[in-house]
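Following up on my earlier thread - several people asked me to post the actual chain instead of describing it. Fair enough. Here it is, all 376 residues.
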Amino acid sequence: MKILCVDIGTGTQDILLYDSRVHIENCYKLVAPSPTMMVRRRLQAATRSRRPVLLTGMTMGGGPNMWAAQDHLQAGLPLYATPQAARSFNDDLDVIRDMGIQVIAEEEADRLPEDVVRVSLRDFDFQAIVQAFGPFGVSLDDLAAVAVAVFDHGAAPPEISDRQFRFDFLARQIRRDDRLSTFAFLADAIPAILTRMRAVAACAAGIDAPLVVMDTAPAAILGATLDPRSRHDGDALFANIGNLHTLSFRMREGRIRGLFEHHTGMLNRERLEHFLKALADGSLRHDEVFADHGHGAHLIDTTPLPATPPLIVTGPRRQLLAGSALHPYFATPFGDMMLAGCYGLLAATAERLPHLAEPILESLQGRAGRPPWETD
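Reply from S.P.:
Thanks for posting it. Predicted structure:
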């Protein structure tokens, strides 16, 4: 049984082709540029050559691609976008127009001159992954499932802060189900407000396999829990320090007891330690994090923990806590921190697709698999 897991971040997209027949450490992996970085490079090339650009395709993640779009406009060059593509930068098309982007209909886009550089936006490009594996003789024709993780702010109404809107969603989800898998959805159950996840589902529509979509940070933390040294009977803190966002959970035996989310670029080690300590001692408040330009905080249990509770850290910016007095443990599930999100996706798939659970759980528990040469 094969499952394709793709964790799409700001810097990289991390890809695991899980095969239940082999030891999980022998499954094939790729760490490739993220889609937003790929679009950024194409925009930068168009800016250097002084050519106008048309953005088409789906709603996708922002960040580097938006910064490159702003640079293109500041260079005095035209930038067109179809409505779905434009919403990669903001759900409010009036805000997009105020940036200087010309939002045009699909039929109008078809009539633009040939010298306009066409850039198609999408977070999940299945055919590109197929082509990457193809030269190695690896087929993706027989997948049992596909699992994709993306960060989704949600489509906030104009009068509501994007930060508040996303955090309200996080808090609402853990009130419904306090397991990390609460942030994973089957394609037909993705909430309407999660427009980026729904765009991923649209990109995957032609694949003959069920799709699971999950938020990136909970996927990474769920993956980090699979490191044997990350397992604790009592309370522990988990943090995913991503390139753009930091999300931390206070966990007890797999259940979420509190969380906060902030922007990584606005944190230094001292500030992050402060929020982690407050999460542990029960004093952290939503207003404090939000006023600091983070997303917010929500505590289910405010009982103070011991002075230095276990702190398990993952994410590409985890060196922010290097040398911390909180003594973090840098989790490496199955020997690979960059694939933590993929392993979390795999665990969430076992919950969302129970008929696939047995071989997945056997693999994650180290009770299944053979060397690759014994599987042909």
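The longest helix spans residues 162-176. That should answer part of your original question.
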